[in-house]
Each structure stands twice: as structure tokens, then as C-alpha cells.
Design brief:
6-stranded parallel β-sheet, single chain, globular, 12 strands, alpha/beta
């Protein structure tokens, strides 16, 4: 019945960041995914210059359910819970009056090079959204149902307990998921699931198969602007 009542809604552009730092680790992947504070600030300035507004997950859900236009909204997301997200990204977001969603692995909170609960808590109270990225950085599509349940439920439970708020979204490590993943997310009360690449989608209108646009180190202003010229995404959201 829920599927019959689902409404087709426009969904805003979603950007995916990993690290904002003045230096990057030595491996190629980390270097590509570490943007400088200056680059990040310039990208926020671009959003403001174009009249675009960043929103958190809860606000986005509310706008969608109330059928408000999201045409000028942008969802900024960060993965993995690195400590530079608190040290660099968070202050820059505050300077511009913007918000973002931080997908964290609860099992790495408080470990070297990652945020602590004393970082995550103030960010949430300042208006940042905190979402699930699992307990560990496990590829859910490679796990049996009990292991997926642990990754999803434990992450939701820990974030809810520490932040005293509902957890609405999950970002899949490596972007992979399967039908079992979506069923378990629904059972856990999650509303949105984010992947990293359209190749992983089987239903482009599912709120649990949302794609993001990856931001890389040294991305030109023209390439960043081009991210907003692609086709409008739509999702089916049940009441």
C-alpha cells in the first residue's frame, strides 16, 4: 500500500566530500579526496553567489514531505568521520552559515585521525546532521543479513544514544548495498540511503539509492559549477 501512496518528488544536488585539510596522506586515494580549506571555502562561496542554500537531512525531509521546492537546496555530505572535518570543515561551514551531513563510523570515533564524541556532539548541536556510515567501514553487499543488521542497527543506536536525536540517513561504505540492506534500513527507521555511483542503482527513484557527486582535490571552479547542470533527480517518498 505504501508504494501505491508514494509521491514522486524532486531531490536536490548532493555533494560528497571526505577530507578538508592543509595536507593530505601520502596515498593516492587520500590525496585525491582531500580538498584544501581554500578550495572548500571557494565552493561554499560559489553556492552563495548562485543563491543556493545548504540544508540538513531533517530539514530536507520536512521540505519534501511538505512539498516545498528544493530547487535552490544543496546537500553537502562528508564520509568517514576524519578529525579534519571538525578541525577545518566545521569552522568554514559556520563562517558561511552553512550546514552539512557527516556520515560517521561509530567504531572509529575517538580513534587516531578521527573525530571524538566531544567533536560530534557540538557539531550536531550547531545544526550539522550526523548520519550512519556503519560500525566499521564494511561493504554491506558482502555481508550476510546478521552482519548487515549489526552494522546498521548498532550505528543507529549509538548515534541516537549520544546525540539524543533520530538518525535518518545511511551512507554505504564503498557505495555498495543490496535488497537486504534496504529492508534493514527501513526496519531501523532510516529514511534515506546514499551510494557513491549511479552504477550501483537498481531503482533511481528509491530514497535508499541516492547518488552523490564526488568532490576531488584541485577541482576547478568550472568543473564544480558543472555538477549543478546535470539532470534533475526524483525520488518516490512514502508518507
Amino acid at each position: 500500500m505504501a508504494a501505491l501512496l508514494a509521491v514522486l518528488l524532486a531531490f536536490p544536488t548532493v555533494l560528497m566530500y571526505h577530507r578538508v585539510d592543509v595536507s593530505a596522506p601520502s596515498d593516492y586515494v587520500s590525496q585525491a579526496l582531500t580538498v584544501s580549506p581554500a578550495q572548500f571555502a571557494a565552493e561554499l562561496q560559489y553556492l552563495h553567489d548562485k543563491g543556493l542554500r545548504t540544508v540538513g537531512i531533517a530539514e530536507l525531509e520536512r521540505d519534501l514531505r511538505q512539498h516545498r521546492s528544493v530547487a535552490r537546496e544543496v546537500l553537502l555530505t562528508f564520509d568517514d568521520g576524519y578529525d579534519d572535518q571538525y578541525g577545518y570543515a566545521f569552522p568554514i561551514l559556520q563562517r558561511y552559515g552553512d550546514v552539512a551531513t557527516f556520515f560517521v563510523n561509530v567504531g572509529t570515533i575517538g580513534t587516531p585521525r578521527h573525530m571524538t564524541w566531544d567533536d560530534v556532539g557540538p557539531m550536531a548541536r550547531a545544526g550539522m546532521s550526523i548520519g550512519c556510515h556503519g560500525v566499521t567501514h564494511a561493504d554491506l553487499s558482502e555481508l550476510a543479513a546478521p552482519q548487515q543488521t549489526y552494522q546498521i542497527d548498532r550505528c543507529v543506536q549509538m548515534l541516537s544514544a549520544h546525540l539524543h536525536s533520530q538518525v535518518l540517513a545511511y551512507a554505504y561504505p564503498s557505495g555498495s548495498f543490496d535488497a537486504e540492506t534496504i529492508a534493514l534500513e527501513q526496519q531501523a527507521g532510516l529514511i534515506f540511503g546514499f551510494t557513491t555511483d549511479p552504477r550501483f542503482q537498481t531503482d533511481a527513484q528509491s530514497p535508499y539509492e541516492l547518488t552523490r557527486r564526488r568532490i576531488k582535490s584541485g577541482m576547478s571552479a568550472a568543473d564544480f559549477a558543472a555538477l549543478f547542470g546535470t539532470r534533475q533527480a526524483y525520488i518516490k517518498l512514502s508518507p
